[in-house]
Amino acid sequence: MQSFIQSLPKAELHLHIEGSLEPELLLSLSRKHQIDLPYKNIEQIHQAYNFEDLQSFLDLYYLGASVLIDEDDFYQLMWQYLCKCKEQNIVHTEIMFDPQTHTHRGIGFDVFMPGFLRAIKQAESEWGQSVYLILSFLRHLSQEDALLTLDAAKNYLADVKAVGLDSSEQGNPPRKFAQVFSKSAELGLLKVAHAGEEGPADYVWEAIQLLHVDRIDHGVRSDEDPKLIDYLKLHQIALTVCPLSNTKLCVFDDMTQHNILKMLDQGLLVTVNSDDPSYFGGYLNENYLALHTAFELDKSTITQLVKNSFIGSFLPAEQKKHWLNQVDAALAK
Ligand code: ADE
Ligand code: ZN
Predict the structure, then answer these.
(1) What are phi and psi of 159, to 5 degrees?
(2) Of 37, 47, 163, 170, which cross-links 184 as Cys (Cβ 3.0–4.6 Å)?
(3) Ligand 1 site, CB within 6 A
(4) CA of 332 to the centre of ligand 2 (A)
(5) What is the pLDDT of residue 188?
(6) For residue 242, what are the domain limits?
(7) pLDDT of 204-225, one tens digit each?
(8) pLDDT at 117
(9) Would you state the pLDDT for residue 287?
(10) Helix 201-209 to helix 226-235 angle, to the nearest 10 degrees?
């Protein structure tokens, strides 16, 4: 099944670039910038990456991001993930980045954006990688801060496809960000939000009704509200589900308890994604494989999930069609 998953061209719709910071790069950048971390080697990092909930992960994720200082660091980070895309046959990816994680440390858009864009242009020209960027607001900060961030991004919005909402979900409902999402829409940006990861199904409703999102990140707790499930099905609103993330952060006790296949059977547009692969033990193909190990997925289920990744993407209709045809062509081989 591993080679079957590998053989299909895939899209990834939920990936935090800061969550793709591999332990090796983390350690080498901490040495480069003489930043003290509570780990001395890879082994200690792996031991530390044992999470009990979202917040216990976020604490180490923000700590890890503190080693990203200059343009080349952001280039290396993006380049390594894009090389993974090539390796795993991820032909299109929609990548989130958290500006406030950097601006709050005095590192501005003029440092990280040129680094990201240099890597993206290189991957586009070297092997035709397709990439969109999603600027994500940190929901534990204020809407005022998000508005300032949107303003600070103004010179780079031509390179940004959508805005997102991430970080600590409980107690930071989508409604807190209605104004900045409305302003983003006026600027021509699409919208996504993490909702129903740890937070209740009501937050998914809020993301839909108050933020008018085009897609929901995670959304696995939608399952608790049958009316919401009906709505998601009727409107085919994509859910970017992240199986390894959900088990590492104890949203589900283990993979056999995951509800992604139940939601697929209910007719929802669910997709498979890696979220923060360096912290959760696997990139996109490992997420498909983990589902296969837990549920013995057949090829047609995997194919449907892969097709959903293109259908739920922000690609224009003709490119979606192109990639859906490419999936069929790979199947025919
Ligand atoms: N930031 C990075 N990964 C996240 C996740 N899974 N949930 C919320 N915020 C995040
Ligand atoms: Zn996420």
Answers:
(1) -100, 10
(2) 163
(3) 16, 19, 54, 61, 166-167, 194, 197, 245, 275-276
(4) 33
(5) 98
(6) 2-17+84-332
(7) 999 999 999 999 999 999 999 9
(8) 99
(9) 98
(10) 40
Residue 48 inside a domain? The answer is no
Catalytic residue among 22, 197, 198, 206: 197
| pLDDT value of residue 311 | 99
Residue 38 belongs to some domain of the structure: no
Please report, for residues 49, 80, 204, the alpha-carbon distance to residue 77 in angstroms, rounded to integers and kept in the order given. 19, 5, 31
Instruction: Cite the beta strand spans of the chain per DSSP E.
Output: 10-16, 90-97, 130-138, 162-166, 190-195, 215-218, 238-241, 270-272
pLDDT in tens, 92-124: 999 999 999 999 999 999 999 999 999 999 999
* Nearest residue to 136 via CA among 170, 112, 106, 118: 112
Looking at residue 170, which CATH number applies to its domain? 3.20.20.140
- Residue 89 included in any domain: yes
- Atom 9 in ligand 1: which residue has the minimum CA distance? 167
Q: Quick one: how many helices (H) and strands (E) in the chain?
A: 17, 8
pLDDT in tens, 152-178: 999 999 999 999 999 999 999 999 999
Ligand 1 pocket: which of 52, 59, 61, 172 to mutate (most atoms within 8 A of CB): 61
- 72 CA to centre of ligand 1 in angstroms: 24
Q: How many domains would you assign to the chain?
A: 1
Average pLDDT (134-159) is: 98
| Distance (Å, whole) CA 141 – CA 241 | 24
Rounded Cα gap, residues 309 and 270, in angstroms: 8
Q: Helix or strand or coil: residue 106?
A: coil
- Angle between helix axes 317-332 and 299-311 (nearest 10 degrees) is 160
**Do 275 and 244 form a contact (C-beta atoms < 8 A)?**
yes
pLDDT tens digits for 5-34?
Answer: 999 999 999 999 999 999 999 999 999 999
Half-sphere exposure in the Cβ direction for 235 (13 Å, CA): 16
